[in-house]
Amino acid sequence: MKEFSWPVRVYYEDTDAGNVVYYANYLKFMERARSEWLRSLGFEQDELRQQYAVLFAVRAVQIEYLQPARFNDALTVSVRLSEMGRASLAVTQSIRRVSEVDALCTGIIRIVSVNAGTFKPMAIPMSIMQKLQHGEIV
After folding, report:
1. Whole-model pTM above 0.85?
2. Helix, strand or coil for residue 117?
3. Among 16, 46, 73, 102, which one carries the catalytic annotation?
4. Total number of domains constituting the chain
5. Domain residues for 120?
């Protein structure tokens, strides 16, 4: 699967008293990158709800903090589809400084497709599945 990357700048509000990114903010950076990944494939989340009655909800997160990001760092957050089921998917994500190869943080995010009205699991519509599998950026 193709990897998608999204740039993020660390702002003062993202850090703790030591100018290190607060641990929960890595999840926010990953969420932004996943939203932009979907957008790059032609999917706006509000339109998914309106057209397909589908929402994507995070079911589980496995995350490893390897090195700290700091105030004013320029980061790259990557997204790669790693698994896909009938009503779920998993993405592998990493956060790196723009100028470095080593990851600061990695995670596996498990996402479930749910009906927008009932919040019960539902199959991912085939047209969405095809674009996710092929990474057809529009």
Report:
1. yes
2. coil
3. 16
4. 1
5. 3-134
